[in-house]
Amino acid sequence: MAVSKTLANGLLFEMGRGNINFETGSFRVLLMSAGYAFDRNTHKTYGQVLADEASGENGYDAGGKALIDDMPWSQDDAQNKALIQWQNTTWTADGGSIGPVASAVVLQWDEADPEASLIVGHIAFGQNITVTNGVSFQLQELGFDMDGGV
Questions:
Q1: Which residues pair with 3 in a beta bridge?
Q2: Distance linking the first and last C-alpha atoms of the chain
Q3: Residue 41 lies in a domain
Q4: What is the pTM of this model?
Q5: Would residue 141 count as lying in a domain?
Q6: CA–CA dist 19, 107 (Å, integer)
Q7: pLDDT tens digit string along 12-53?
Q8: Within-domain flag for 23
C-alpha cells in the first residue's frame, strides 16, 4: 500500500495570517469515504469536505479523533524543512464495519465553529480499507514534512 501525503495549498497562507498554529492549535484527523477526492486548491475547511467523511458509526465518530503531539513543531536544518508529528491514532470497529475509507484529512479544529476548521493536509492510503467488527485500524507516522521549496 503506497501512502501519499499532500499539504493543502492554503496552509502557508493561513499560517502567515496566524490562523494555523502548530504550537498552540488543536488538531484532528478524519477518515474519508472511498469516493472522496482531495482538491488541495479548493478544500480549505471541514465544512467543504464533511459530506465525504466516513459514516459516524461502528466505532468512528463524526469529526474524527483529536491528535496528540508526538514531536513538537520542529526545524530540520540538515534536510531544510519543518516537521510536525502526532501520535499514532487508532479506531476499532464496534457493532459493524468502518468504511470503506481511502484517506484521511488533518485539520486544525475550531471548537466554536467546527465547519470552519482549517485543513492542513490529506493522507491517501493507496487503497480502500474496510475495518471489520472487532478489528483495529491505526494511522502511524502521522505528520507532515514542510520543505521550503523555491
A1: none
A2: 30
A3: yes
A4: 0.90
A5: no
A6: 12
A7: 888 889 888 888 889 999 999 999 999 999 999 999 999 999
A8: yes
